Each structure stands twice: as C-alpha cells, then as structure tokens.
Amino acid sequence: MKKSALKRVVLALALGAVVSGSALAAVTARLGHAMPESHPQAMAMSKFAELAGKYTNNNVQIKSFHSATLGSDEKMLQAVQAGTQEFYIGTLAPFSTRVKEVQVWDLPFMFSNTKEVYALLDGASSKKIFQMIEPTGVHGLMWTGMGFRNLSNSKRPVTKLEDIAGLKLRVMTNPVALETWKTLGANAVPMAFSEVFTALEIKAIDGQENPLLHMYANKMQEVQKYISLTNHVYTPVALVVSKKFWDGLSDADKQGVQKAADEAKILQRQLLDAGDKDVIAKFGEAGVKVDAIAPADLAKIQDKVKPVVTKFAPQIGEAFIKEFYAEIDKVRAAK
Questions:
Q1: Is the pLDDT assigned to residue 21 strictly greater than 50?
Q2: Which pLDDT value is given to residue 25?
Q3: Which of 94, 145, 204, 260: disulfide with 199, CB 3.0–4.6 Å?
Q4: Is position 59 within any domain?
Q5: What confidence score (pLDDT) does residue 81 get?
Q6: pLDDT, tens digit, for every residue of 40-99?
C-alpha cells in the first residue's frame, strides 16, 4: 500500500474513533416543570433543550416534560437531588426548611417593577442561594421570572384592604404566605396547586393568588370572576440540574448547557413581559373583571403586612435580608 493511501486509511480510522467517541459521550436527560405547554416557561424550556443540544454538539440531549407529568415541584426536586431526574425548573420553596434564605422571595411588596426583580435575579444574593443549595445535590444554572402574584376570587371585587376580610384563599404552603394573608384578614388555606382548580370549581375555596399568565394558562378564568392587581409578591423560578449528572459532564458540555440556560432565561422573561401586556384583555373577554388598586388603598395593604417582614426576618436571616434590600436600593438609585 502506498504511503499516501495508508495515511488516508489511518486518518479515516482516527476520524471514525472521534465520531464513535462523541456518540458514546452523548447523554439523555429529562427536564420537568409544572407549567402547561402553552405557558412561556414551557416555550423557554423547549428552546433550552434545543440550544443545549446545539451548543454541546448533541452530546447533551434534553427532553422537556410539561404540566407536572414528572410529579409535584417537591417530588421533582427530590428526584434531581437523587440523580433520577436531571433538570427541573420551578420554585425552590421545598428547600426552605434546609436553606431558610429561599423564603426571602415570599416577603410581600419588596419590588416596584420587573427591572428591580431581574437585577436581583442576576445579582449576588440569588447566586448566594445557589451556593447554599449545592450541598443538597443540586447545581443552580439560572433564575428567571414567573411574574408578580395577583389576587383572584369568585365572590367580590377587591379594591381595598377591607374587601379581603373573610375570603377563603388558597395560598402557597409556606409560613410567610400564610402569615401575610392571615394578617390581611383572609382565611388562608395552604394547598398544592394541582388541587386548586377543583377546589375553586366546587366552591371549597373562594380564591387564590398567582401571576396573571399562570392563572390564564391554568384556566382560572373558568372558575374566578374577579382579579385584583395587587402585585404583592414576585415569584421567581430557578433552573437547576442534578449535581451527580452535572459533575459527569465535560467542561465543554457544561459551558454549552450553561450558555443555553442563559439564553432561555432571557427568552422566558421576554415572553412573560409580552404576555402580561395582553392577558388582561383576554381575562376581560372571558368575563373576568380586572381591578387596579388605587395607590392610597394599596399603601394601606402594604402597611398592614409590614409586621410580617419583621416577624420572619430573624428566621430567614436578618443579614441576608439586609443585603437583599441593599441590592434593590442600588437598582432604584441607578434610575
């Protein structure tokens, strides 16, 4: 065999080995979350899966599972910790018993607008929370938005503090949310979100509180008559990956997955911001009355819940909360 032909054979074998090695290196992963396929989060996560494949040369192939098909938030987080599920996006509230700082996002009326929120999501405090959850077996990739929470109910318009009294409201299963709504005079009922629609349908509860797009995607317009634009809490979500899975990736694949996460983060925020602008009109078309709250009446509601922040600050960590509020003040000062 001539030397040139031999070189071609050797080169072909070497290329074959590279391709074979790449194929062997490919891994599949599952990403679970609670939102239905029509929600901006589902769209952003489908894009994340696509980009992760692109940026890792298909070494990391992710399949998204929407609508809590892999279980509740708590169940999915536990699976990610155990390494039986690779990715999850959603609330980190189930970690609150081990990482108390996670509860900072439950404190009422911290933010005036999404500019402040997004700066905090990308800031030092949120990165610190990711560092705190790392020992649980979870690696944080990014924080993104879910929207300001607003109040809905089937009984009456709520435009002032007194209107909240006596409403039986589903709230998140965390002590800050419970205390907030009890302080405002509501009959606060902790309940898994998967049970909320049926509970509203059979009138077991009067209302609930969630971001507008979250409400619409989950068909709250079919069982609620009134929405009040309280913007009382901003709910962020975090995209996390099993540390066991993450540690098994090459540095190049980690960089590719992180790049995909960073781009999906921005996309989700953009989709949410755009959706918030037209969802109010959609609620109106569905027969839901949407009420703004006058600044003076909103100020009374805000004053009423100030003791909640005072009560939970020592539990969450006063130093951490101080750092968090300092970040917000810095964003406001930069206007």
A1: no
A2: 66
A3: 204
A4: yes
A5: 97
A6: 999 999 999 999 999 999 999 999 999 999 998 999 999 999 999 999 999 998 898 899
Q: Please report, for the domain that includes residue 192, its CATH number.
A: 3.40.190.170
Domain hosting 314: range is 13-333
How far apart CA 31 and CA 47 sit, in angstroms, is 12
Helical pair 124-133 and 318-333, crossing angle rounded to 10 deg? 150
pLDDT band at 5 (very low <50, low <70, confident <90, very high): low
At residue 8, the pLDDT reads 54
DSSP result, 100-157: GGGGGGGSTT--SSHHHHHHHHTSHHHHHHHHHHGGGTEEEEEEEEEEEEEEEESS--
Contacts of 159 (CB under 8 A, 6+ apart): 228, 291, 292, 293, 294, 297
Q: Tell me the mean pLDDT in the region 9-17.
A: 46
Write phi, then psi, for 47 (nearest 5 degrees).
-70, -40
Single-letter amino acid code for the residue at 14? A
Residue 329 burial (CB count, 10 A): 11
As for how many domains the chain has, the answer is 1
Phi then psi for residue 180, to 5 deg, are -60, -50
Which two tokens mark 266?
Answer: 């921005």
C-alpha to C-alpha distance for 49 and 32, rounded to whole angstroms: 11
By 3-state DSSP, what share of the chain in percent is helix, strand and coil, each rounded to 5? 55, 20, 25
Residue type at 256 in one-letter notation: G
Does residue 103 belong to any structural domain of this protein?
A: yes
Strand, coil or helix: what is 186? Answer: coil
Rounded Cα distance, 241 and 225, in Å: 39
User: CA–CA separation, 242 vs 187, rounded Å?
Assistant: 38
- Domain-located, residue 3: no
What pLDDT was estimated at residue 77?
97
Tell me the pLDDT tens digit for each residue of 187-246: 999 998 889 999 999 999 999 999 999 999 899 999 999 999 999 999 999 999 999 999
Give the closest residue to 231 by CA, choosing from 116, 123, 143.
116
| Domain contains 7 | no
Residue 306 is which amino acid? K
